[in-house]
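User: Run a structure prediction on this.
Assistant: Running it now.
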Amino acid sequence: MSTVVQPCARCGARWAVQSAPMHWCPRCRGVLLSPAPIDAPADRRNYRWVARRPDHRARRSSVAGRSAASRETPRYTRIPRWGLLDPPPRPAAAAPRPLTGLTKWASALLITTAALFAVAVVAELLRYLLLLRNRTRLIHPAVLFCSDALVIGAALLALLFALVTAVAVVGWLVDARRAAFREAGLADPRSVRTLVLGCVIPVVNLLWPGVFLTEIVAQRSDPRALRAIRIWWAAWVFGGVVAVAALVWRTADSLQVKADGVMFTAFTDLVAAAVALLTLAMMRAVEERDVLGRSRTARRWLIAVDPPVPVIEPVQPGGRAHSEPPLDTADSAPAQDTDDDNGAVDREHEEVMAK
């Protein structure tokens, strides 16, 4: 079968070209268009397709007997679901990074970690109360078992979630740095490996995370994010020192020191919960959001100028200037003479009283 066809301009039928092109459609005697391949693109055809209703052939048979053509403007009552589709090219999606889904849960993981450390604090305090009671009375084995289970379970869950949360926060750090440098039209000068190693290696991770975060907000004019990073940095270093001290404390042999170590462990868990919450607040400050996660709206101050109001009312000459209407020129002279006479009499009276 030939791959070159001639479409009919009237009925739309396509006739295969065998030897020579035809001029008229064998079905409806309509004009046949120029020969072209079946799937020829538009730039290789010398004709164009005209959109018609899907039922135009059935309608033609029903209106064939009408003598006058309809003058109504052709329109569609609904969006046509037929025809050639030419969707616009879609931008290539970025390759998904590993642990991207975990990064989205960084805020929820931080809140969960803080809650678990708070439960660990309560467990340590209950253990200390049991130790105080054990000084005078024996503790039931079931109560002791429940206390051990609560202390060990809360500590293990808190440490597990702390590790998972650390991985999520490192992923958030990588994304935040990329977004900040992309907004400035630059590329992140530090590789992902450098960021991960600087946040994972012990002792080193007390210094470099603060440096990485400070580079994000270095070009911003709002000092709130930088202040939040410095507060978190100080709490992070303090938490690391407290954690090392708690590990060293557990190596003591004295019974009293071990009992005091229970309280120090509770203090360590409390510091860890506070560091988790400060980490969440710092992340939201870097993202230009408030502590509750809401978008921070810019506050604009306007200078309000009040109308000038004199503090002291100016003194007007003449006590009757406001209450009495001005007098004529002819009447003002006798009034001035009268005032002068009264003034002279008053001065004479004052001189007599002085003598």
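The chain has nine helices and three strands.
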